[in-house]
Amino acid sequence: MTEQRYLSCIQACSACVIACEACAAACLREDDVTMMAACIRLDRDCADLCRLAEALMVRGSDLAEETCHLCALACQACAEECARHSHEHCQQCAQACQRCAAECEAMVA
């Protein structure tokens, strides 16, 4: 069973994965995809790290906290990049990433 202390962080990671994947997909449909390249790369990196952090927390891995620290860094970088763009999908992703970064940082504190 998942440790209760991880629950809110797992939920934030899950929401962040969804937001990042949706943002990356929407960025690929923008007129100037080249301008969105950094956003797409960070969306994908962030989603992958959130998935990994989520899995390690669910299984109670000894590496969960270290992975959550790295996840928080990725989420913060993604949030900063997405916040630079006015697209609604980027703004929603930035918010999800900020929440996830905060949850991951709180979990490892």
TrEMBL record:
<dbReference type="InterPro" id="IPR044543">
    <property type="entry name" value="YHJQ-like"/>
</dbReference>
<protein>
    <submittedName>
        <fullName>Four-helix bundle copper-binding protein</fullName>
    </submittedName>
</protein>
<dbReference type="Pfam" id="PF03860">
    <property type="entry name" value="Csp"/>
</dbReference>
<dbReference type="InterPro" id="IPR005560">
    <property type="entry name" value="Csp_YhjQ"/>
</dbReference>
